[in-house]
């Protein structure tokens, strides 16, 4: 028996023994269970929830469920049970007898869709309510009072494999294996759908915006448990981008939106570039939504008109944050910002911090900072951003006490999707009390930096790497000395397994300072130190440093830092991270590795939309005399 599966308006149709059953849900969408609304939820707990957010069920009907997935395969069983709302909502009442029947009929389609997704084209789903098959129930069913018995029995049948694969039209000549259509491989319906979508995407990548599927068939042979696939496509004409319109702007200049998107008439049509343009506009932070719509037909000149549709978000914002460590105490941050000062996404952010709360003996041991940062995207071309900042700070650490004021300005340029370069100028005045006494420094510097970033996710990467190199030539006016710092670092990430539940992460960083006759000629905040939640965990902030004869921290001219983590996702939201950090700081411009310190521990991660919440516990493997025996660090984001 051969079962033909093709794609009409809503879904695939199923022909069998002369009967026709349309499956609207099959192969066209995945059923999604709606979750109840709530005001705020974190760590599985709800806050500020009102009773109005849990509406009462009208005419509630309770049911008891007997569910047989018909398989011992855990993955298939989970897929079947996850697709059935009767199973997911077990214990919750349904609205009316008819509501129970509708839910059961929908579940049959959902389960069949799940079976198709697992290549089970011969599967059978039997559902009965109060002992009667759902297809035999009257239009207005009546069930006895009390919990209504519901039975779901699934017979998945064997998994089908691909037999013949035919690509026709403008898809002809392509290798089916490039689309996952491999003879003998399991014929999941999702693979067939993705293959058709990729054929169209490949044609569109050739600047053919009107490419479309003209046919997609999957014919199942129940005698051989195989599926024959036919996919045909039409590429349409090659076209350039045409007129670009912008809609939805209110406070943001529409011309700037077009300018910053880098979508210009006459460019070759490229879906990839359009996707990047939308992402670029979203990253400005002024829009709650960005959609780039293509016309469904070409203009008379053969170009493709485009429309950028935006919806503006709130321009003003404020917030607060915190991090805590058993060694370094509590740190608090607060900020206020405006995302669109002059109508072209210019931003201003004012922020303040308090650090070291609880670390020392009083207010005098706490550090403070207050700063303002201005940014103007597109200042020197659409791929550039100008920034300027002012900052005043009091830093009270074990290494030094410093009062600083800094003014800086510079620009960042995007060289490619992965590469950025930045440069600027900085003037700083510092009053520093450290192991070399109480000294004043006035410096002028030219910070330069190059970054290559291929990470798939900046907040929680699983693949790719980030490499950075910077230089900061500096002149100190009080002593008429010149010195330069150079730093380089790289971090890499690799996920293991098909589900990517384990991610290996590594980091290596080096730095050196050349010039300046003595270490005292370099301001203490510019010398190198290691230790703390961002470098070698298990040690206090700046605790890894050369010391003088009195045991005072003096900082160094060079450092080497290495870290390794194994990030294991236990569930979709919970992960554990064993880690090892190693570092050394030396007095000389070249590391002498005479004092290597290492910290090891394990961390807990809780995934959120704004990045993982991090809790790390570490112990120093080579503890300083009178140093801490362990450290606990909490914050947002991965350690690196």
Automatic annotation (TrEMBL):
Keyword Transmembrane listed? The answer is yes
Q: Which Pfam families match?
A: Omp85, POTRA
Give the main location. membrane
Q: Which residues form a coiled coil?
A: none
Keywords, alphabetical? Membrane, Transmembrane, Transmembrane beta strand
Where would I find the POTRA domain in this sequence?
A: 239-313
PROSITE patterns associated with the record: POTRA
List localization entries.
Answer: Membrane
Q: What is this protein called?
A: Outer membrane protein assembly factor
| Organism placement in taxonomy | Bacteria, Pseudomonadati, Pseudomonadota, Alphaproteobacteria, Hyphomicrobiales
